[in-house]
Design a protein that fits this description.
The structure is a homodimer.
Chain A lengths: L17 H25 L8 H23 L6 H38 L51 H30 L1 H13 L15 H16 L3 H4 L23 H21 L7 H26 L7 H35 L2
Helix pairs in contact in A: 1-2, 1-5, 2-3, 2-8, 3-4, 3-5, 3-9, 3-10, 4-10, 6-8, 8-9, 9-10
Amino acid sequence: MAQQHPDPTDPTAGAVTGEALAGYLRAQATAFLRALRLHRETGSTLANSSQESVDGPRALRRAARRISGSLHTFRPLLDPGWSEEMRPELAWLSGTLGLEHAYEARLERLLLALHRLSGTTVIPAQTSDRAAAPGRPAGMTRAPATTAPADSSGPTAPKSTPERGNLTVGAAKAGALLERQLTLARTRAHSTALQALGSSRFHAVADRVAVLASEVPLTPAAPTTDLGPLAAAAEERLTDAVAALPLVTAGHPYNAEALVHGLAPDLSAHPQDGPWHQVRLLLRLHRYAREVLTGDEAPADVRLVTASQALNRHRDASEAAAAAAQAARTPRITPATAYALGVLHADQRHEVEAARFAFQQAWQKQTVNAP
Amino acid sequence: MAQQHPDPTDPTAGAVTGEALAGYLRAQATAFLRALRLHRETGSTLANSSQESVDGPRALRRAARRISGSLHTFRPLLDPGWSEEMRPELAWLSGTLGLEHAYEARLERLLLALHRLSGTTVIPAQTSDRAAAPGRPAGMTRAPATTAPADSSGPTAPKSTPERGNLTVGAAKAGALLERQLTLARTRAHSTALQALGSSRFHAVADRVAVLASEVPLTPAAPTTDLGPLAAAAEERLTDAVAALPLVTAGHPYNAEALVHGLAPDLSAHPQDGPWHQVRLLLRLHRYAREVLTGDEAPADVRLVTASQALNRHRDASEAAAAAAQAARTPRITPATAYALGVLHADQRHEVEAARFAFQQAWQKQTVNAP
């Protein structure tokens, strides 16, 4: 771990107390309200608008996640009734607001993969964090590449999805099918999010956050309570969950583990992914707890960031693989379409495996270099 | 390289001359004739018989490959007319005799993969060199495994192919389709091989090999000519071909290179595999040349063996992937069958990538440790 900040497990360091938690929560609440104002001023919603207004809902979710995470990790220091009412509302909000972007990123990921699998290279738009290129060394594509120009309209515009001109019939049909299904899902998510933002439920959340921006409901003892033990407990939950992961397997390249259930009866169920998703959430809570203690939102430890990115990629590939498997169950598709979806599913499951390998590598480095 | 044998590139070592080549060729010719006698005595042919008689044709091919390879590498030391007539005949023979086994091993590989992809584990029979398990660390399968008992009738009996009881409909149908197509191909290969063994062309080859067993047509200067430079040239051809491989890419796990053309218009063409197949052949020639120089058929260098095995696995997975893609073009298959074949194709292409990684690892070790 980087040592420029107090180490939460070091009892000799000057203790960071509940006051810091209050400061962090106030700051996040303020960020939430700023994002809400930005969103309302630009008058647009969510992901299918210009890049600037995207930042509104994204910043809203970002702050909601941090508030919610801090409420969880530092629960004993906060008014329990308030905290228990607040958390599910914040989870509902960030879940609802995140869906549209998730469907969009999933479609982009799948269409990019179809192009890669067809030997055509599309330069992925770089601004979308979920749709980032899947972490291969740059310049390694040796295939005779028909490089499509990068679309300058931004990754969130529907028209920025790669064209299917160079695909085979099966790949093109698979792409069209996925586009239809995921665009429909995204449109529904958009409507749901719009309704959510106009709902009395949302206004109640926003009101509570507005109060939080000035007045954090700490317990009487909290202002002088050391945050260290609670932050350490969050880290321990993470460490325990990581220890339960099959990291030895994941560290062997090409272990073929992620596709073991690729043709299992329930195509979209991958129970093996669950523990990794869980670690993703615990790692996020650990990072937020570190932010509270250091008072700094800039990532303190590049390895934690790398590990987080690997787990995000794991989640994205897992969901994309499930979407391909789901699309293959559409009635009356042609065998060529189904074949392309099978290749695509397997490709994304290998992305899952690659992400686990990347996490293992990042985590190993971290453990080796820890004090 | 292991140093217990003379280093062919070391000018100070006692030179190995054409006499050693003659001895090697006589020994291989004798092995050829012994295999032929064994095959005729057991009265059975090729791969679909009991384990003992399998060794006949396999030993026949083994000797034929070594004679042919030595004729190529040490061509200047042998009567050119004889040599140029002999080589294509030996290539025809080992190609014809190898096909049946290749189809059988391919089917076994694909059915094992279908089981793995369905979350059921089948213990592969261990005696078949081409059908060996694809090199994962043992005991790593964490899936809830329905382990079928290993079939004791040997890997070459058609009934030893795994049962399809636990597969999904799509996987089962894909397996049945592949079994039908590859069994047909194998039956044809069997007939062709039987015809070949009864042909006058084969008898002419056998007669020539019988002569070779006692009388090697060396050039007049050959008995005192150092074999070193010709063996070194064979090694150099190998080294040059390896240097042209994309080993940097191959050394990055999960580079996703092997599937780049997974959905390209011509499904079964993978031009990127060609250079690797070529290296496989050159590596074999290099190994045979070492055998001639050391007078020892036992593998002198475990890393050369590891590299060879990786390239065999590369070839097998490449051909299996092509067979899955080919099967997916069968008219009137169901989408579920096509989907399973797509997953299977992608899985085998990742096996191709895994084999390249394994070769890169083996080769790197070799280069690092070479004097």
